[in-house]
Amino acid sequence: MTLSTAEIVSYIGGYFWPFVRIGAMLMVVPIFGAQRIVPVKIRLGLAIVLTWMIAPMLPAVPAVDPLSLDGLLITVQQLMLGVAMGFIIGFIFSSMVVAGHNIAMSMGLGFAQFLDPNGVSVPVVSSFYLIIGTLLYLSLNGHLISIQILYESFETIPVGTIGLEVNSYLTIALWASKIFVGAILIALPVLITIMLINAGFGVMMRAAPTLNIFAVGFPTTMMAGFLLIFLTLPTLLPRFTEIMMGSFDLIEEILLAGGAG
Q: C-alpha angle 79/255/38, rounded to 5°?
């Protein structure tokens, strides 16, 4: 059996360029990429397996030499597509981290920080909310939806020199504000209650100036914070689901915009 140069190039490109998009997304998605709990070899192996499963079902890729200028442009476009999708999914978990940070600062645990797997010092409460968010993401089949959207992205924007529109990157940047909106909605019950507790201690200090408010207020605020976190856990599911589905809708929106362009 003899293969021509064009057939060899087309066969290599049919797996290489989908691998670039898939690998870029997996390297950015928090569960696999931002959290260094998963070794690089496992992430690379998962990208290879997904490419092996998805590539045969994709439309024919252009017969372009991967080492040519057009091939380099296609590689960059696939890399940017994968990073953009992974970055949007990362917004889901960022809102949980910001919510935990706000709660920790209000209840006096802002100083209780440690190095998380990302190598960034964050409050313990943020790490707790990040773990809860990861478990909710997996229980809601968010990882399966992500893989489905990744596969559909090849149908919407096939492998080629055409990628996302410039306005799509602006849309992604503006969507980052949802991180803070979602975080405030998650942390709002705890923040308001602790603010009222602190206001009550302020009134007590004015009424009894000799009262050591720090000795009484600090443990009371901390215990109230833990109790409020426990009581507000059931409200995380609808908020997290709203943020997650909004991120998936945004991915589909920018993919449709790029495919239409």
A: 45
Q: Are 179 and 94 in contact (CB under 8 A)?
A: yes
Q: How far apart, in whole angstroms, are the C-alpha atoms of residue 252 and residue 244?
A: 13
Contact 195, 217 (CB under 8 A): no
Nearest to 251 by CA among 90, 99, 56: 90
In the 3-class helix/strand/coil scheme, how is 249-261 assigned residue by residue?
HHHHHHHHHHHHC
55 HSE (CA, 13 A, CB side): 20
Tell me the backbone φ, ψ of residue 109, rounded to 5 degrees.
-105, 15
Tokens of residue 177, six digits: 């504000």
Residue 151 CB partners (closer than 8 Å, separation 6+): 54, 57
Write phi, then psi, for 154 (nearest 5 degrees). -70, -25
Measured CA to CA, the distance from residue 140 to residue 241 in angstroms comes to 8
- Reduced to 3 states, what is the DSSP secondary structure of residue 151? helix
DSSP element (H, E) containing 113:
strand 113-115
Instruction: For 113-123, write each residue's pLDDT tens digit.
Output: 544 444 455 66
Residues 81-114: tens digit of each pLDDT: 888 888 888 888 888 888 888 888 887 776 555 4
The whole-angstrom separation of Cα 72 and Cα 148 is 26
Contacts of 233 (CB under 8 A, 6+ apart): 132
Alpha-carbon span 112 to 179, nearest angstrom:
23
Report pLDDT for 161: 66
